[in-house]
Write a structure and sequence with these properties.
Helices cover 43% and strands 14% of the residues. By secondary structure, the protein is of the alpha/beta class. Strands 1-2-3-4-5-6-7-8 form an eight-stranded parallel beta barrel, surrounded by seven helices. The structure holds cytidine-5'-monophosphate. The site of cytidine-5'-monophosphate has 16 residues, from strand 8 and helix 10.
Length: 270
């Protein structure tokens, strides 16, 4: 895949006009734009998606559906009818039938023959093991139980996330959203072709903002991520223009691909 197509710009904190102007400016340099709860709640998601389509780029509709299978199927049917939406997501916690219903509706109602990719949200990265206990997920389940006294909470969380990724794959979803720290394990378990969409990406030397566990674009690409969701480092770059920031990230992804195929290649200097 072309490196720029692997960049998803998160249109966070932007009003309709600002979102459209970001799309106008960045569409030659990135592949997708993520429309989240703000634009959806303002009932502007469709307008943004149509604007993006007119500029030759797709939209990731970050609606994180989680409801009974029939209701999610209905929502997925509407999304599939929006030709400009190329990707949307559902919570894996909704279960097998719900995920299956979302994927089937996306395929059956596709306006382009294929339909949008359906991506699973595993465990939100705002959760840790104590907070999973708070919401009464069974920490005694074999997947969740600590294996040996040295296994860290992060390792257990990774195992849980990988197991949800496998559930998503079994239900026919196209991939999952995963934090950079989980990408490698998911790639190993779910194999090639299963899409991994990763937020928490920060080019070297840029502000972390409120992201805690980050990877550079190069690291995320090398770990096996297909798409990188990047908001503030592109929309509000500390130096240079938004276009400069997007181009630098695409270059880093390209070089990661080079270092993948040419050991010790140029990317090692990044
Ligand atoms: O500005 P920044 O690059 O941090 O934006 C990352 C985007 O990815 C935001 O839209 C955020 O909501 C989303 N996201 C995330 N972490 C997750 C899931 C989604 O940062 N675990």
């Amino acid at each position: 895949m072309d490196p720029k197509s692997r960049i998803i710009v998160a249109l966070d904190g932007l009003k309709l006009e600002e979102a459209c102007s970001a799309i106008e400016e960045l569409s030659p340099y990135v592949g997708l734009f993520k429309v989240g709860f703000e634009l959806i709640t303002r009932q502007q998601a469709r307008l943004v998606a149509e604007f993006a389509a007119n500029h030759g780029v797709g939209v990731f509709y970050d609606g994180k559906f989680h409801d009974i299978p029939q209701t999610v199927e209905n929502a997925a049917t509407v999304i599939a009818g929006m030709s400009s939406v190329t990707m949307f997501n559902v919570h894996c916690l909704g279960g097998h039938k719900m995920m299956e219903a979302a994927k089937e509706a996306a395929v059956q109602n596709a306006v382009d023959g294929k339909g949008p990719s359906v991506i699973g949200v595993t465990i939100l990265t705002s959760h840790d093991l104590p907070s999973l206990r708070d919401i009464k997920l069974d920490l005694n389940h074999p997947i969740m139980k600590r294996r040996g006294e040295h296994e860290t909470d992060e390792e257990i969380m990774r195992r849980i996330v990988v197991s949800y990724a496998c559930d998503a794959k079994a239900a026919g979803l196209d991939g999952v959203v995963a934090s950079p720290r989980e990408v490698k394990a998911i790639r190993e378990e779910c194999g090639p072709g299963f899409l991994i969409v990763t937020p928490g990406v920060r080019p070297k030397g840029t502000a972390l903002n409120d992201q805690k566990r980050v990877m550079t674009p190069k690291e995320a690409a090398l770990a096996g991520a297909d798409y990188l969701v990047i908001g503030r480092p592109i929309l509000s770059p500390e130096t240079g223009t938004r276009i400069d920031a997007a181009k630098r990230i695409a270059e880093e992804i390209y070089l990661a691909g080079m270092s993948d195929s040419i050991p010790g290649g140029q990317a090692s200097s990044l």
